[in-house]
Amino acid sequence: MSVQEVNNEYVILTENLCKDYTYYKKEAGLKGSLKNLFHREKLIKKAVQNLSIKIPKGAIVGLIGLNGAGKTTTLKMLTGIIMPTSGKVDVLGYFPFDKKKEYLRRIAMVMGNKSQLWWDLPALDTFELNKIIYEIDDSEYKNTLNSMVEIMGVEKQLNVQVRRLSLGERMKMELIASLIHKPDIVFLDEPTIGLDVITQYNIRNFLKEYCVKYGSTILLTSHNFNDIVTLCDSIILINNGEMIYSDTFKNFQKQFFNQKYFVLKLKEPNVDEFISKLHLENDIEIEKIDSNSIKIATDNNKSLNILKNISGNFIQELSDINIENISMDDVIRKIYQK
């Protein structure tokens, strides 16, 4: 499957994209070091394998995977930071690693753990520098900057040294610096990492408004699934460098968000006896939380019957009952455990 088509214009195309890293096995100790001088065993780490994706203009796509799955490596190939080992890649009609000026003017990359801001200078100085680098017209620069600063609510921090800003304030400034030239594609690598919930919310709102206003495409990696749920039209799941799922987020929800949890707390610590009395079907998952609590996982179409069974026959044995929808964390965990 490919990512949802917004229109017929794909701005990111890859075909069997691969990236291998070569390294050498080192044996421990002095003897091993001497041996490596004359004979080294070469090993290959396959970071990305046969990745084929199509992303249309204006889409917001989430690239999801465990640590080491190949997400950041993929972004680095798409932005031209590293060269693919093999396969085809086309972004806005360019081969990214050529690093043509025309291409670099049309993209931006923001990494949550990297900074382009000058530590001892106000963020406004970086904005002015980027204005010169990207040859932005004075009036256009002023209008874009004022709009972004207003949305982000950072008017009072513009002339403060970057090192005196909080982490959230710095991240807001990073986004403004990266988007001041209004790129067609924005690559985001963990943009909300380490931020408080209010700052995360503000950044997500900013990105949504930015895309609506300028029609940009976003490819986002994040372990914060609120980013994915709030922003993304489509998602791509990768594992060990390979794509294992790609579809619209709506279809993803229909396929995987079809479970409910019943968390039952018993008045007496007799979990095993209580479970045996429920007589649930074999495909219904039951997890023992502690000596007097269990969690029942069931499909949505069976949840009503289970609720009727519990409330009609066992309500006197319960001190509490809680009904929960399956979380994004649980969905991803189940997919990767298959």
TrEMBL record:
It comes from the Bacteria. The keyword Nucleotide-binding applies. It holds the Pfam family ABC_tran. Residues 32-265 form the ABC transporter domain. Keywords: ATP-binding, Nucleotide-binding, Transport. The keyword Nucleotide-binding applies. SUPFAM superfamilies: P-loop containing nucleoside triphosphate hydrolases. One of its GO terms (molecular function) is ATP hydrolysis activity. This is Daunorubicin resistance ATP-binding protein DrrA.
